[in-house]
User: Fold these one by one.
Assistant:
Number 1:
Amino acid sequence: MIRFENVSKVYARGARPALDTVSVDIARGEFVFLVGASGSGKSTFLRLALREERPTRGRIYVAGRDLSRLSGWKVPSLRRSIGMVFQDFRLLPNKSVYENVAFALEVIGRPRHVIKTTVPEVLEMVGLDGKEKRRPHELSGGEQQRVAIARAFVNRPPILLADEPTGNLDPTTSLGIMRLLERINRTGTTVVMATHDDEIVNEMRKRVVELSGGHTIRDDVAGVYGERERILPDVAASPVLDAPGAGERQAHRTLPDVGDLEAEAKAEAAAAAEPPPSTVTPPSSAVPVAYAVPAPYAATRPVDPSAQRPPSDADDVVRQVLRERAVRTGREG
Ligand SMILES: Nc1ncnc2c1ncn2[C@@H]1O[C@H](COP(=O)(O)OP(=O)(O)OP(=O)(O)O)[C@@H](O)[C@H]1O
């Protein structure tokens, strides 16, 4: 479905390649995490697949098309076969939830009666029925991302690309978003997600392609985020020892059943109402285990200011979680 053959990308003459001889083959229906430090080439990979950028060398095939032979007028048709989700949601601020999703169908000329039936269906699928009339600023971050996913998926593209879709969300909300992406993947859609989020990658156990300095340094069928499997092969699979401090974080994460939108919505609401993490006592069964493991790499991408909305209790919790993560990352690194 997506095939990179010895692909290199050099943005400016003399610059280090953003991607260097990368070969990756992603089959129809796969779910793939693209991980790597900031600047390793993840977004470049996604932009090349979207034909937003052209490779300097190598061949790229997407949804049966050889992108090197794709003439300009066929690019919109390629893009219709790819849904794209971003960290900062990129919703139209003056349009309602319904209009944001409908817009994606209007621009490709779908008839009004199709839009009228399709939009409510997809909004129900992402758990936003009842919120059709709200504007983006009247939604939580998780809800805004659900709108963005609905918009990306409403045309039922065979491929969904997501660039840090949980980067602005707290852990519980992120899990709800992951469940949604997983559900979309189960409909047969190929999902490729660039992320820094070690918890999510470790939890999902999907294929992991790791980039470093533009090179592919790892391609694991059911991988974890960082180096731990190679360092501590015996403990890496243990849920309690899954990550340094995982016990503390576990106290904030209620894992809803797959497909249970109501439970996911409740979990998000509970996360927003929860006191900051530092005031929560971890359950005795989840006592954090102290062992020295190098941090894989820091989540260095800053929260995008364009994604900001009026402050709420949920924002306070998110800020607190991000602060704590930053402190923890600094301590481990
Ligand atoms: N438009 C551009 N012009 C010049 N250089 C670029 C451009 N986009 C990216 N780069 C460079 O290419 C390299 C890879 O960047 P890329 O954005 O693909 O990394 P990334 O892994 O997505 O990083 P992050 O996790 O921070 O988003 C970096 O060195 C970056 O500075």
Note: Strands lie at 2-9, 19-26, 31-35, 57-62, 65-66, 82-86, 159-163, 190-194, 207-212, 215-220.
Number 2:
Amino acid sequence: MSFDRSIKIAPSILSADFANFGQEIRAIEAQGADWVHVDVMDGHFVPNLTFGPPAVKAFRPHVKTVMDVHLMISPVDAYIDAYADAGADVLTAHVEAGPHTHRTLQAIRGAGMKAGVALNPGTPAEAVEHLLDLTDVICVMTVNPGFGGQKFIDMTSKIRKLRSMIGDRPVHIEIDGGVDPTTAPLVAAAGADVLVAGSAVFRGGSVGNADVYGENIRNIRAAANSVL
Ligand SMILES: O=C(CO)[C@@H](O)[C@H](O)COP(=O)(O)O
Ligand SMILES: [Fe+2]
């Protein structure tokens, strides 16, 4: 993954048809997805359960772009090797998931993946200030994690602060939650480059009608690019 500051759309397969992940992943990539976002939830760190390493490993052969795995689990460290083995390209852990995020990011890179750190809406930008040299992706949550389809929470001042803290380091700012053609310009103008979108990509479409995914992806990207 070479560093690229342009807007990237990362559909979250949390909004896909759970009986058809392979086809859904191939459909969103054929329709212009830049990354594929995989939400891992443990029913403990967040009040919802999704998939673990065997499911993520089964997704891998279908992903030709970047498999971006968002861990909403605690603890994290015991599972890092399993997600490396499953084929994650980016592995993101929450800074709120435990006291040793510095060690976690080192371990993620040590296992051969890009390291991401996610911030809940209530967590300040300063929580990652001393982690920037170990981080490839900062994921700014614009909903409280756990579910798709929630209302966007404005985090633009946090995004601006992070962009200035990052300086010229090759660190992506990813936005996750409630991203659609209305909210995408706000976060893009503030300095985000990776836009996760679940409901706004899958809404109205299906694997049999995947052109709708393409139209939704193009609309989000165009809205974001319109302010750059
Ligand atoms: O991590 C999460 C939710 O916890 C996200 O990745 C959601 O899946 C995004 O869904 P939308 O808000 O775009 O519907
Ligand atoms: Fe996510």
Note: The mean pLDDT is 98.
